[in-house]
Amino acid sequence: MIRIPEVAKRLVVGRALRSSELGQTLLPKRVALPIFASDPLSSVAYATQEVLLVLTLGGMAYVHFTPWIAAAVVALMTVVVLSYQQVVRAYPSGGGSYEVVSANLGENAGLVVGAALLVDYVMTVAVSVASGVDNIISAVPHLHAQRVPMALGFVALLAVVNLRGVRESGRAFAAPTYLFVSGVLIMIATGLFRYLVADAPVAESASYGIRPQEGDAQLTGVALVLLVLRAFSNGCTALTGVEAISNGVPAFRKPKSHNAAITLAAMGLIAVTMFVGVTTLAIVAKVHIADDACRLTGLGQDCSAYQQRTVIAQIAAAVFGGESSFGFYYIQAATALVLILAANTAFNGFPLLSSILAQRRYLPRQLHSRGDRLAFSNGIVALAVTAGLLLWGFEASVTALIHLYILGVFTSFTLSQTGMVRHWNQALSTESDPALRRRHRVARAINAVGAVFTGLVLVVVLFTKFLDGAWLAVLAAGVLWLLMRAIRMRYDRTAAELTSTDPHTDLTPPSRVLAIVLVSNVHKPTLRALAYARASKPDRLEALTVAVDHDETRALEEQWQRLGIDVPLKVLDSPYREVTRPVVDYVRSLGRESTRDMVGVYIPEYVVGRWWENLLHNQSALRIKARLRFTAGVMVISVPWQLLSSARADHHGARAPGSVRRGEPPS
């Protein structure tokens, strides 16, 4: 008989892998790049747009700041990439920023980074998917009403692919990422060539003007500085995901640190090239975009019905000859796909980080367990559910979600670079080799510059985005930090409670063992429970029944005596027809006779093969077990009796999810 749930799981997830096959899932650099760097590479699609959206709040007069802001973003990305190359070489065990900060600044600071990154990974999924849906809508505007269902569907698809394992997701996502990178580079080269031959591309919005937002027409002094800083903080979305490679070093082939550092450098070079190229073309093509279409002038139509295309869509149309050209649709399709797949960076980073935190008892232990495909399945599911709820709550709007973004990643950047400075200080204090000391000083200088720059950006981001919604990300990270501390305290208390201080005392046997067999009828399950209880050779053995119906109880006593069962049968009166309370009260009274006595309660239970049969059997047994679990000195022993339906189910190969991973043999 085919079990539909098991077959469906195998079709979706694939065959289970042995733990010894973990080495086969390690990644070469060409596959690791799209897996861990799809987020920073794909952010090219919207980073320039986010800069322009802020600058045009003051109207067209402030767009000339775009090149300077782009230069600052590029400088910052260069510093961050160089800094994280030091991290992957110094801490190749994974954990990235969390590992660095915990080792050098203390566990509490490490938890700040951990909480901030976990929140940021959720935001990465939400923003990437929402932005990808935006680009699909740019190409097919009538899909606007389906924004939220589309976003939730893409999150579910990403979760399923990642549940199949890291290597599987790499194979699935490598081609779209490389297609996007090559398409954007071709678009940049074509656009710049046209500019050099005096045939510069012109965007569809080039003829539009932009009215300043009310009160922003003449910005000077502090207001102007704030506008530029806000635009810069939005442009820093291009840096999100850079730290993912440092978290995923264990997933690389050997030499792990070397391969991770090369992949990081390649990611930085490609991302910088694309960001500079897209920003240059946006300026050359005179792309005009506003947060509200009704601030555009010269539209010639109802602004409320006008759907603005994204910056990269306008550039593609201008470079390749219009919105009906192959190049336009190629860029739109590749951009939408890679933006959605950019969330895969988080689907690799979040489970890895949550696994490390769970291993250190700051998150539930289940997050450290690998699934059938050797992926951290519970972390993948948790990320998908959380991001899905966020997309649903914010209606998959990039504008609404972007303000919650990048705060966590710059918290991670700043603290990790500060931790690396301390790491190199400690290394210099013990190193005597002049060549190594010079190398350590250079590395320390790089990390110190990185700490200063990212710290300044963190302050800017917090200041400019806090009231726009970033406070939600701060609150979420703070709550998560408190929750992780509480989980660790709970695990520590449990460990202290369970630790044996004197094995000899704890191994001392009880003074007496009292065995009680619960009886509802004299049948095979009851007789098996009596035989098993007797085989344990207790000091005292008795059967126990509750007199709910006096006629039935009298018949039970007569049958007991007629069969000559040499175990005393005790009858508990129950005037209110309860079963659970009289049994629990009686068992507890036995335990109070002596604190060194052990009471064993044997409960016959039916094993059934169909889920609905559980509704017909074992209800009283479940209630009694649930109550007795909280009684000290009482052991509850289930004595199963397999009904015919259970034998048929076993013969047909009924297996629970994860049975292969738990080592259960096939039928």
Q: Strands of the largest sheet, in order across it? A: 5-4-3-6-7
Question: What is the H/E string?
Answer: HHHHHHHHEHHHEHHHHHHHEHEHEHEHEH
Rg of Cα set: 33 Å
What is the mean pLDDT? 82
Shape: elongated
Outline the secondary-structure elements.
Layout: H1 4-13, H2 29-42, H3 44-55, H4 66-90, H5 96-105, H6 107-139, H7 147-163, H8 166-196, E1 209-210, H9 221-235, H10 244-247, H11 256-284, E2 296-297, H12 311-320, H13 326-359, H14 377-393, H15 398-401, H16 407-430, H17 434-498, H18 503-506, E3 512-518, H19 524-535, E4 540-547, H20 550-563, E5 569-573, H21 580-591, E6 597-607, H22 619-628, E7 634-642, H23 644-651
Parallel strand pairs: 3-4, 3-6, 4-5, 6-7
Antiparallel strand pairs: 1-2
What does this protein structure show overall?
This protein has 23 helices and seven strands. It is an alpha/beta fold. α5 runs antiparallel to α6 (107-139) and α6 runs antiparallel to α13 (326-359). Keywords: Membrane, Transmembrane, Transmembrane helix. It is a multi-pass membrane protein. Its main location: membrane.
Précis, in short:
Helices cover 62% and strands 7% of the residues. With 667 residues, the protein is of the alpha/beta class. This is APC family permease.
